[in-house]
Hints:
The chain is α+β, with helices and mostly antiparallel strands. The protein has helices at residues 101-106, 111-120, 124-137, 142-162, 168-179, 187-194, 198-209, 213-231, 236-242, 248-259, and strands spanning 6-8, 17-22, 26-33, 43-45, 49-62, 65-70, 74-77, 83-99. The strands form 2 sheets. Strands 2, 3, 5, 6, 7 and 8 form a 6-stranded antiparallel beta sheet that branches.
Amino acid sequence: MTHQIHTLKRGHYLAPRYQTYDFGDFLIGHTKYDNPEKTGTWHLHERPMISMVLYGGNLEKRKGKEIQRTTGCVNFYHAHEVHKNEYKVFPSIHIGLELEDKFLKKYDYREADIEAAVQNCEDSQLIFLKLLKEAAINDEQAKSSIESILLSFIQSSNEKELNTYLPEWIKTVEEVLNDRWNENISLHDLAQETQVHPITISKHFKRYFHCTFGEYMRKLKVKQAITLLRSTNLSLTETAYACGFADHSHFTRVFKATTGHLPKELAKI
């Protein structure tokens, strides 16, 4: 590659505004592009990193491929992997997680394990919001809490990769729940759609989805709420009803339990 390549040391970013939270084994960065400006510098990070688009997005170019990154998109970068990001949407806000070698060695992980976890996790956006919340609290328990969330994320995602065989009825369940996220779907409804007994669905649901049926539905609604909060001018109450929550109070409780944040805090991140 003939371009000049910038090497970014631990905790350094190209964004004009950023904040870091250093926990030794890992570091969380919160970066912001508030206004249009020239972007697209080829660079690399010295540590392996996971990055989530909290808001906005960019066109990313790596060796041999382009990736259109939009809100909620999560990507993994190997240490020293050269890439550049061209920002077209402003403001654009990202959360980054840099991992130290000592963290990987402590748990016998390879960079490939982290990459696989990112690719297999459907809840990365919710997990990263929790990580940012814990980082912002930054008390004596924050590091242990973040480490626990991170290990659970890697383990559950890699277990999903091992589940290479998915029964057809599980695929149908996933399609129905994602297509009808705003409906009050019951186990009986799923049984009719799949021709599988409700007890069988209930028994095996957590094995394949790594959460209970109720938790999965609440996550889907919260993801939709995040999209609405970021892309519309709906009030919190209107957003709550649009996403199938009983009322504003119910919405707030579930949103905070799922993301670590109150809905009104999302705009301030």
